[in-house]
Amino acid sequence: MASEFKKVMLIDDNEIDLKINSKIISLAKLFDEIIICQSGEEGLDYLSKYILNPEKLPDLLLLDIQMPEMDGFEFLDYYKRLPRNFTSRCPVAMLSSTLDFGDIKRAEANAHVVKLLRKPLLTTELAALIGK
Amino acid sequence: MSSQSIKILYIDDEENNLQAFKAAFRRVYEIYTAISAADGLKILQSVNIHVVIADQKMPNTTGVEFFQSITETFPDPIRILLTGYTDIEALADAINHGDVYRYITKPWNELELHNSIKNAYDVYKSRIDLRNKITELEKTNDELNRFIYSISHELRAPLVSVIGIVNLVKMENLYHSSGEYWSLVETCSNKLDYYIQKTLQYYKNNKTQSEESLIEFKPLATELIDLYAYANRDTQFTINVNQTVPFKGDLFRIEVIMGNLISNAIKYQKSNEVNKKVKIDIDVSNEFAEITITDNGVGILNEHLEKIFTQFFKSKNHHGSGLGLFIVKEALNKINGRIAVNSSIDHGTTFKITLPNGK
């Protein structure tokens, strides 16, 4: 994992959750910058646009599971095709309210997913994840 | 369905028989006749036939051979075999390979044939009804699965957002800004979320097939405590696990059982107790795992001990859902486990569960 977590990218189709979670993160001062994306596509567009621009890239991804069009797992299928020198230093944490056993197992089985965080996001859990 | 719309196909290489059959039954049934197996097949392909009657002795294809040839393509019509002589081999073939419902000798007795056709149609109808029922059930089951999935997502997601907002309110020190309103919102949201979670657990316990895997109790207990105690940090946990042999069991249900008991042990603490304690002892042998969960909480009234495992039982003083222990018992039933409870009011409760080792 990266030694320093400065930027976090939030991917969630739910505007209210984006608002809540970015507010929680900024109040807890866990990151300097929050990149907000309303869909997996938007997230991928951002990442591929700045892939050669490391200072623009996030250090952690918080990814919702249930999203229209591209869900969290489909996003991960594209994510793993991004250059390794980026994906290996930017871990992904799923952030979902799911209780579905299938979702939980799939998240645990994915090599890029370091943790399945439950909504609502708790600052203590996020802090523990990034070692702060 | 009136008997007029019962569709009968009669195949015989003798034109006379076909005519006689028509004459006898055309007022009662919708009759189709064919002079050969090949012609009969054509009719089957274009008409939804309910009962097929075939003569055994025909050139090219015999009645049994014909029945055999349509077992895959037209499994539904009920078959009746007609023969002019008693041929044991044909009879055995008819039963073993042709899926024949009745065997009638020629010349036929009109009443006997009539009754056979009627019975054959009843069988046809109940088969189709059964199949429709199964399709219907599968659809209902499918819908139920989708419904459960949408409860776990669509219904719960906005609720979890509300809980997130309450957390934000706390972080911004606004929790006490509107009297007790925020704490009321929090209590109601948590209660609703608890009900959704328990309902899903109950449903999954009923649905899911038992699946055995190796279980390490030490990490499992620690994980469950982390999960249920995160909102309540002032309870002291002591865990003693004595596991030297492998244990095989249904992880999902064991999690449900231990999780509910641990969450109860935390929930039913005395609010004025300074040393809130929960002790978990686990002993694993080749035959059993014995799990004892002891708390120093409020305890259970003697007269309530028998009722705590029934659905929607709630004690007056506490705000449970009446589902937790009921689900524990249901899950234990599924995996042949046992539970015993010992309690003393104001001193605490001990639950002891015994799970068979499925090694």
Task: Provide a short characterization of the protein structure.
Chain A has 132 residues and is an alpha/beta fold.
Characterise this structure.
The complex is a heterodimer of chains A (132) and B (359). Chain A has 132 residues and is α/β, with parallel strands linked by helices. In chain A, helix 1 (15-28) links the parallel strand 1 and strand 2 (33-37). Chain A is 39% helix and 19% strand. Chain A has a single domain, classed as Rossmann fold (3-Layer(aba) Sandwich), CATH 3.40.50.2300. Chain B folds into 3 domains: 3-108, Response regulator (Rossmann fold, 3-Layer(aba) Sandwich), CATH 3.40.50.2300; 137-207; 208-356, Heat Shock Protein 90. Chain B has 9 helices and 12 strands. Chain B has a 5-stranded parallel beta sheet, sandwiched between helices. In chain B, helix 6 (181-207) packs parallel to helix 9 (324-334) and helix 7 (217-229) crosses helix 8. The longest helix of chain B has 62 residues, at 110-171. Chain B is elongated. The mean pLDDT of chain B is 89. Chains A and B meet through helix 1 of A and helix 5 and helix 6 of B.
